[in-house]
Write a structure and sequence with these properties.
A middle domain of Talin 1; 14 helices
C-alpha cells in the first residue's frame, strides 16, 4: 500500500509539472520574456518545489537530515541525466549538437558547481553555519547575474500571438494552482520516503539520493521532454541548470529550520560522493553543449554514454557505502 501511495504522489507531481511547463511557456510569450531566463530562474525554481518541500519536511517533521540532503544532491545528479533522456528521445543525432550554446547555460551551470563545492566544504570542514550563509549569498549573486544576462536574446524568438492576447491573471492563476499541487504531493512524498527507507533497509542517505531524488526530479523530466517536443531547447536546458542552482540553495533553507547544530555538520560524509558526481556530470553536460558533439552511436551522443557510465558507477559506489 505504501508503494501505491508513493506512486500516486509521484503521478500528481508529474501531472502538475506538465501544467507548469505549459503555463510558464505561455507566460514567456505573454510577457515577451526570454525562454532562457524563464527556464533558468522561474521554471528552475518552480520545478524545484518538490525538493524544497520534501527536504524541509524531512528536516522539520522527520529529523531526517540525510534524507533531505540526499534528495537535493541526488536530484542534481538526475537533472544533468535528463539531457541523456532528451538525447534518446530526440533521435536526430546528438542532442548537445542541436542545442545552441548560451551564456546563461554556462553561468547557471558554473554557479551550481560553485555552490556544490561549498556544500562539500561544509561537509568536510568544521565551518558550522557559515557555509549555509555563503551558499545563500552566492545563490542570490548568481540570480542577479542571470537577470543581467536576460538581455541576451534567446535562440528561440518565435512568439505565439494567440497566447499574447490571453489573460495574464489566468496564466498566473494556473501556475499558482499547479504549484500548490506540487507542494502538497511533495509533503506527502517526504513522509512516505522516510517510511520506505526504514522498511527497505536501504538507509536515508541512499534512499534519498536515489529514489526520492528521482521522484522529485520528475517535474524537470516532464519539462525537458515537453520542451523538446516544442523545440524549446532554451527552456529545457535552462530549467536543468537553474534547478541545480536552486536545489543547493535549499541547503541554506534547511539550515534555517534545522534544530540543534549546523545542518551540514550532522549528516553523513557519504554525501561528498554524491556532490562530486553532480559536479562531474554537470561538467560533461556543459562540455557536450559547448563543444557541439556530433559523434553518436545508435543515434545517441557519445557524451550521453559517458554520463550514463559515470552515473552507474557513482550509484554503485553509493549503494556499497549505504
Amino acid at each position: 500500500m505504501i508503494w501505491l501511495k508513493f506512486l500516486i504522489s509521484a503521478a500528481i507531481i508529474v501531472w502538475a509539472g506538465i501544467r507548469l511547463t505549459y503555463y510558464v511557456d505561455q507566460l514567456s510569450d505573454r510577457l515577451q520574456l526570454g525562454k532562457v531566463w524563464l527556464g533558468v530562474v522561474l521554471l528552475g525554481f518552480i520545478t524545484s518545489l518538490p525538493e524544497v518541500i520534501s527536504s524541509l519536511s524531512a528536516v522539520i517533521f522527520l529529523n531526517a537530515d540525510d534524507l533531505a540532503l540526499g534528495n537535493l544532491l541526488g536530484s542534481n545528479n538526475f537533472n544533468p541525466m535528463l539531457l541523456v533522456v532528451m538525447d534518446v528521445v530526440y533521435r536526430k543525432g546528438s542532442i548537445t549538437n542541436a542545442i545552441v550554446p548560451h551564456r546563461s547555460y554556462r553561468a547557471a551551470a558554473g554557479f551550481a558547481v560553485v555552490l556544490t563545492v561549498i556544500v562539500m566544504a561544509g561537509l568536510w570542514l568544521p565551518l558550522g553555519r557559515i557555509s549555509s550563509f555563503i551558499i545563500a549569498g552566492v545563490y542570490f549573486c548568481g540570480m542577479r547575474y542571470l537577470a543581467c544576462l536576460e538581455k541576451e536574446p534567446s535562440t528561440e524568438t518565435k512568439k505565439d500571438e494567440s497566447v499574447i492576447q490571453r489573460s495574464l491573471s489566468g496564466i498566473v492563476g494556473n501556475i499558482v494552482f499547479s504549484s500548490i499541487l506540487v507542494i502538497g504531493a511533495a509533503i506527502w512524498l517526504a513522509g512516505l520516503a522516510d517510511n520506505l527507507a526504514a522498511q527497505t533497509g536501504l538507509g536515508r542517505t541512499f534512499f534519498g539520493s536515489i529514489f526520492l531524488a528521482l521522484v522529485t526530479s520528475l517535474p524537470e523530466m516532464v519539462v525537458s521532454l515537453s520542451a523538446l517536443k516544442l523545440g524549446a531547447f532554451d527552456l529545457a536546458v535552462g530549467n536543468i541548470f537553474g534547478s541545480n542552482m536552486t536545489n543547493i540553495f535549499i541547503v541554506s533553507l534547511c539550515e534555517v529550520f534545522h534544530k540543534g547544530g549546523a545542518f551540514l555538520s550532522g549528516v553523513s560524509q557519504t554525501h561528498i560522493l554524491t556532490a562530486t558526481l553532480s559536479i562531474v556530470l554537470t561538467c560533461v553536460a556543459v562540455a557536450g553543449i559547448e563543444l557541439k558533439n556530433k559523434k553518436s552511436f545508435l543515434g545517441v551522443g557519445l557524451d550521453s554514454f559517458i554520463m550514463i557510465l559515470l552515473f552507474l558507477i557513482g550509484t554503485q559506489i553509493l549503494y556499497q557505502l549505504r
